[in-house]
Write a structure and sequence with these properties.
The chain is α/β, with parallel strands linked by helices. It is built from 15 helices and 19 strands. Strands 11-12-17-16-15-18 form a six-stranded antiparallel barrel. The structure holds manganese (II) ion. Manganese (II) ion binds next to loops.
Length: about 500
């Protein structure tokens, strides 16, 4: 999984020569201290790199060029300590290809009431310097995140950190490769879409391989590799009796391990960040990958079932954004409802492929028949998921654009045992309530597949959508159905 501390955000301060050398030295010193404070903040997962103040059209253009080319630079924080006439920024902003956060802050928290004079005013004027900068970005219709407040404020640092995570997810998508084994499930609409447009818009490529190409790699697996992996299974999970050595289905566990090893090898050799498969195209595979997919997701690979490449890519991005935070991110599907009055909820799951990064406690490793696909019984990890705030996110292809939907939910600890349910599952109550949330989701065209997150918030995904330049529809505590339906109508016009 990606280590966010290897990534850099550059802290760039704007000014001009009008103020003279002494003032500019103070500007640089203040910027250095702000950048160092942000760099040291536990809220911000990436490095914050101080850059010298830019004071001319040429210096601004130059730093934007450098940002574009710097390999580990995922974005820029811009701050206008003093007044930086914004026509100087046009050329640079026109070529800037990485995400921007406009930090509207100042060096001093408080006004020094007893000593403030005109020199102080001239040095500390971001209150209007940043407005000039804001105008030009708005005039140029450029997306950015604006964060307001003193740089030592915990909330400010948190917002910067959230944006940095979104920028890291975006950075990870650029040039990323996802592999589809087979096509998407026959006749299904929402899991399909325009892969050319996705590569243009999102920067990742999705290409297909026949399942036979994977089978060939799987068949090169050695017994020693399989034995070693089965030991790992023993250490990490509670194995069903029939799957243990000498048990009647031990052979199936060996098959599952063999698939996992082959799949991982295939992904590593091709440098893929995620994959899809489909139960309709398993020729040569003994069973649908269950535990293999679950464990690969836990390692950081994106996954979408039934050829759902958009969700595979989204799950990967969510894993990168959530890297290092407690809790996990998983592929998910809205499966079935509990319609009890005043206690309505959704049971989320999939046929097999829920990521153990969201598990509560030690998963059990089980084997059960799968009603579809016509293959041998697949091995899977079964677990419950803890209660608490979470969200579901989905990207759909609207034909002329992509739309990201986010629904905040409250996960609920299961009150009942589910002894006959052979898959990992999550219970949640969508916000603001099940009826409103599900109607809103359906009006907005949200998929049945989602990325489920325990550690990301709507702000992460909103920032991510802004960076990607796509529409974001949020369904949360404040959602009113009529308003949301109007928002969808207006967006239709806005994105025409
Ligand atoms: Mn599905």
């Amino acid at each position: 999984m990606i280590n966010l501390k290897e990534l850099e955000v550059w802290f760039v301060t704007g000014s001009q020569h009008l103020y003279g050398e002494e003032t500019l030295n103070q500007v640089a010193e203040h910027s250095r201290q702000i950048a160092a404070t942000l760099d040291a903040s536990t809220q911000i997962p990436v490095k914050i790199i101080f850059k010298p103040t830019v004071k001319t059209t040429e210096e601004i253009y130059g730093i934007c060029q450098e940002v574009n080319q710097a390999e580990n630079c995922i974005g820029v924080i811009a701050w206008m300590h003093t007044f930086s006439p914004a026509k100087m920024w046009i050329g640079g902003l026109k070529i800037l290809q990485k995400p921007m956060l406009h930090l509207h802050t100042q060096f001093n928290r408080d006004i020094p009431w007893a000593t403030i004079d005109m020199d102080f005013m001239n040095l500390n004027q971001s209150a209007h310097g940043d407005r000039e900068f804001g105008f030009i970005m708005t005039r140029m219709r450029l997306n950015r995140k604006v964060v307001v407040g003193h740089f030592e404020d915990e909330e400010v640092q948190k917002s910067v950190g959230i944006w940095a995570r979104a920028a890291a997810g975006w950075f990870d998508w650029q040039g990323a490769k996802f592999v589809r084994f087979g096509d998407n499930m026959r006749f299904v609409a929402v899991t399909d879409g325009d892969k050319v447009e996705a590569e243009l818009k999102f920067g990742y490529a999705v290409n297909t391989y026949g399942i036979g190409d994977l089978v060939e790699i799987i068949n090169q697996t050695t017994d020693a590799q399989i034995d070693q992996l089965i030991e790992e299974y023993h250490a990490a999970y509670t194995l069903a009796e029939s799957l243990q050595k000498g048990g009647p289905q031990f052979i199936s566990l060996k098959e599952a391990a063999k698939i996992e090893i082959g799949l991982r090898t295939f992904l590593q050799q091709g440098n893929y960040k995620g994959f899809t498969d489909t139960f309709e195209d398993l020729h040569g595979l003994a069973q649908l990958p269950g535990i293999a997919t679950q464990r690969l997701m836990a390692e950081g690979y994106g996954f979408g079932g039934e050829g759902d490449w958009k969700t595979a890519a989204l799950v990967r991005a969510m894993k990168v954004m959530g890297s290092g935070l407690p809790g996990g991110n998983s592929f998910m599907e809205d499966y079935t409802y509990h319609f009890e009055p005043n206690n309505s909820m959704v049971l989320g799951s999939h046929m097999l492929e829920i990521c153990p990064s969201i598990a509560k406690g030690k998963p059990t490793c089980e084997i059960h028949p799968l009603g579809i696909g016509g293959k041998a019984d697949p091995v899977r990890l079964v677990f419950n998921v803890a209660g608490g705030p979470a969200l579901n996110a989905s990207i759909i292809d609207m034909g002329n654009r992509f739309r990201l939907l986010v629904n905040e939910v409250e996960a609920v600890e299961p009150e009942h045992d589910l002894p006959n349910l052979p898959v990992a599952r999550v219970l949640w109550k969508p916000l603001p309530d099940l009826k409103t949330a599900c109607a809103a989701w359906i009006y907005a065209g949200g998929a049945h597949h989602t990325g489920y997150s325990q550690n990301l918030t709507a702000e992460h995904l909103q920032d991510f959508a802004d960076i990607a330049g796509i529409e974001c529809v949020l369904i949360d505590q404040d959602t009113k159905l009529n308003q949301l339906r109007n928002e969808l109508r207006w967006s239709e016009a806005a994105y025409r």
